[in-house]
Amino acid sequence: MAFRVGVIGGGQLARMMIEPALALGLEIKVFAENSGSSAAMAVTRIGDYTQIAEVREFAASVDVITFDHEHVPLSVLETLEQEGFSIQPSPKALKFAQNKLHMRRRLSELGLPMPAWAEIKSANELDSFIEENGGVAILKTPIGGYDGKGVAVVRSAADATEWLENLDAFGGSLLAEAKVDFVRELAQLVARRTSGELRAWPLVQTVQRSGVCSEVLVPAPESSESTRQAAIEIAETVAKSLGVTGVLAVELFETTDGRLLINELAMRPHNSGHFSIEGSVTSQFEQHLRAVLDLPLGATESVAAHSVMINLLGVDDENDFVSEYPLALAAFPSAKFHTYGKTARQGRKMGHVTVIGSSFEAVLKEARAAANSCLMV
Fold this sequence. Notes:
Layout: E1 4-8, H1 12-23, E2 27-32, E3 43-46, H2 52-59, E4 64-67, H3 74-82, H4 91-98, H5 100-109, E5 117-120, H6 123-132, E6 137-140, E7 151-154, H7 161-164, E8 174-178, E9 182-192, E10 198-200, E11 204-209, E12 212-218, H8 225-242, E13 246-255, E14 260-266, H9 276-279, H10 284-292, E15 306-313, H11 325-331, E16 336-339, E17 349-357, H12 360-373
Helix pairs in contact: 1-10, 2-3, 3-4, 4-5
């Protein structure tokens, strides 16, 4: 009998798990929030993932539960785990991905490098932190933020009045972090199976625009061996110490003096790893499925010297990029186009383009041109 994998969340990450699941002979089922989701072709249930009865019924139809996002309540997952269902990554690990304050506390206990941070429960605490950290801070909501949402640059508590007046909506506290003087953002992906085997992909550079990942450059240009090794050691320490199973993405700042500081964690396939579909021996989506089922992990070496992935971000409420694909495919036969099956919306991740090759400059130029060709009207 084929292994049965259940994915909660019907977004593009679940969508991109479908092809490797079929290749591995797995049965994949998706619990989606609504009809017409990105992973619609594998949806077997539409419902409310906050309701334990609905999630329990879904869990009973598969061998393991994993995730397209981190928003399922821990109370639901903890109860199901106690009832004997396999939840990967486990609630014990997911609590650190769901709450940034929990994450900062645990990483501090592990002695891992991070920006200075503090838990904020009042305007006075925030003003004190800002004063102690050069007159500016990055303020985050501990829960619910992504793609630039739930993040603000503040120079006084007056800049955060709305959040401070609604602390209950964020679990009673906010997270303040020192504004890091960094030269670029990096990401290190690893995968860990339940029995402990661990594999790492090359360190990548991510380019953000308006708080959203725009480009991923693989491997991170001009990164030293010491930097690459430090990134892997950080990610492996996080994966082992937090008990992560499946793919783990550790987003990092590289500072002006060459240090690496942990920015964010994601315990699932991640935007910074989409390049691996074409650029690696084993994609992050196949690896995630292997890992949560405790199957042997695949090789993570690159199949070309360089990969560049560019997100196709919505520019308006009309262009979903699909109508432009025929011309783009003809003009850029070496580029790989992925669409997420979403309705158009400004700033929304609608798809991505990946180009691999031997010359970084040529690959970057072609990837950008291929992405731009999808915007032509």
